[in-house]
Design brief:
Blueprint: H1 6-17, H2 21-34, E1 39-45, E2 51-56, H3 96-102, E3 105-111, E4 118-123, E5 129-135, E6 140-146, H4 153-158, H5 162-182, E7 187-192, E8 195-200, H6 206-214, H7 216-219, E9 222-229, E10 234-241, H8 247-250, E11 251-252, E12 258-262, E13 265-266, H9 270-284, E14 292-293, E15 295-300, E16 306-307, E17 318-319, H10 322-337, E18 358-362, E19 367-371, E20 382-388, E21 401-411, H11 428-431, E22 437-443, H12 450-454
GO molecular function: ATP binding; ATP hydrolysis activity; ATP-dependent DNA damage sensor activity; mismatched DNA binding
GO cellular component, one term: MutLalpha complex
Pfam families: DNA_mis_repair (PF01119), HATPase_c_3 (PF13589)
């Protein structure tokens, strides 16, 4: 045996981190967000394979950090593995910029508030600075990526077809859409071959962000919700289709408008997506295997309860108490769409939604959600759920009265919850103490002129505006 050359090691590892144009854009956008940017401009040429430029108005890179800014595993975001339990940034591995350098040519232009002017740095394949010159750009950082995959001919060939290129551009837009929703105060512009193809302006909150991205017709068919669980600590919020909504407005044949975030990070969570699809299918009487509902779900849990270091792109995470999160999501879905029909005996494992450690039992008196023991050693999940209906004049975004339905402190008692499927009857008073529905009037504060909002989002093509 012999050790591989350092250059070969860097190329092998980098090509796993940087797999496509959208992976480059994602890494650079997250660097911008970690630098507190409120405006990001993305410019692509030849679908990003000739040039990718990401410019932000963030804090910039300090002069002292420039020599190591693209050296792998140098980062300002964490100091040790223990910091992962308190992670508040998108990035933490210190390998994105270095990996991009290994598969392309990179220029970095940056200026902090303390600098007199910006400087452009040219980097080599190892991430070392090879030259620098003054620049006219203002505060923030601009990363320019040229000739992506120049030294990976097979991968470059893979993306050589027109269809693949257009798919990649669509993925970039979907990525920006996700960040545009979870970051309402973020302004984003996407330009391809000098033509602006998508943009979003700064707005006040998630509701307005969803309106600017999804449109008022879709949002008029959505209902906002919030749920807070005391222990384990889980906070849910977002928008789901109304039970009586038109599925042609609130669903697609793909999951591109099914947005799931954990601690503000866009993630892929198949179990949660399947759970929502099943309840939505029941409410709309549509085939759940064909449709994906349009929704926005933001899940907030303590940083120590999430492991984000699973895949290079950080889109898959592990949850410390996944069953409790699934149960909290199901509580919201039950409140909005009603319980699922009773499972046919012998077919309980045919559901494509819940895992083997979470079931829904149908009794004569009530539906009881059952989950396994949580990390605390007990099975109590205290939850407060509220739904705020969007007013009928949402298309004009006028203030109006909204109904709020509260499930006050639902408690699933450890005495009545079991981790295996059995026939035990559970009374309504035991399973749902104080779970009466209360209607509360609430003034909505989001007065906006929707004519302005509709101009905030420009789709790539007419088909993408279906959502």
């Amino acid at each position: 045996m012999k050790q591989l050359p350092g250059e070969t090691i860097r190329l092998l590892s980098s090509s796993q981190v940087i797999t496509s144009v959208v992976s480059v854009v994602k890494e650079l956008i997250e660097n911008s967000l970690d630098a507190s940017a409120t405006g990001i401009d993305i410019k692509l040429e030849n679908y990003g394979f000739s040039k990718i430029e990401v410019r932000d108005n963030g804090s910039g890179i300090k002069v002292d950090d420039v020599p190591v800014m693209a050296i792998k595993h140098y980062t300002s975001k964490i100091s040790s593995s223990e910091d992962l339990e308190r992670l508040t940034t998108y990035g933490f591995r210190g390998e994105a910029l270095g990996s991009i350098c290994s598969v392309s040519e990179v220029l970095v232009t940056t200026k902090t508030a303390a600098d007199d002017f910006s400087i452009q740095y040219a980097l080599d394949s190892n991430g070392h600075v090879t030259s620098k010159k003054p620049s006219h750009l203002g505060q923030g950082t601009t990363v320019t990526v040229l000739n992506l995959f120049k030294n990976l001919p097979v991968r470059k060939q893979f993306y050589s077809t027109n269809r693949k290129c257009k798919e990649e551009l669509k993925k970039v837009q979907d990525l920006l859409t996700a960040y545009g929703i979870i970051k309402p105060d973020l302004r984003i512009t996407l330009t391809h071959n000098k033509a602006v193809i998508w943009q979003k302006t700064r707005v006040s909150d998630h509701k307005m962000a969803c309106m600017s991205v999804l449109g008022t017709a879709v949002m008029s068919s959505m209902v906002p919700f919030q749920q807070c669980c005391e222990y384990p600590e889980i906070n849910l919020s977002g928008f789901l289709p109304k039970a009586e909504s038109d599925s042609s407005l609130t669903s697609l044949s793909s999951s591109e408008r099914s947005f799931i975030f954990i601690n503000n990070r866009p993630v892929l969570q198949k179990e949660i997506l399947k759970l929502i699809r099943q309840y939505y299918s029941q409410a709309t009487q549509k085939d759940s295997t064909r449709l994906y509902p349009v929704f926005f779900l933001s899940i907030t849990v303590p940083a120590s309860a999430v492991d984000v270091n699973i895949t290079p792109d950080k889109t898959q995470v592990l949850l410390h108490y996944k069953e409790s999160v699934l149960l909290a999501v199901e509580n919201v879905l039950k409140s909005l769409y009603g319980p699922l029909p009773a499972a046919v005996p012998g077919e309980s494992n045919k559901t494509d939604v819940t895992s083997e450690d979470m079931f829904v039992h149908r009794t004569d008196q009530t539906d009881v959600a059952v989950n396994e023991m949580g990390p605390s050693g007990n099975d109590e999940l205290h939850a407060h759920t509220s739904f705020l209906s969007l007013s009928s004049d949402v298309q004009n975004c006028q203030a109006g009265k909204n109904a709020e339905i509260c499930l006050n402190h639902q408690t699933f008692s450890g005495d009545n919850v079991h981790s295996r499927l059995d026939k035990r009857e559970v009374s309504k008073s035991d399973a749902f103490p104080d779970s009466s529905l209360n209607l509360l009037g609430e003034e909505e504060q989001n007065g906006r002129n929707m004519a302005d909002i509709q101009s905030n989002s420009v789709p790539v093509d007419p088909e993408s505006k279906k959502a």
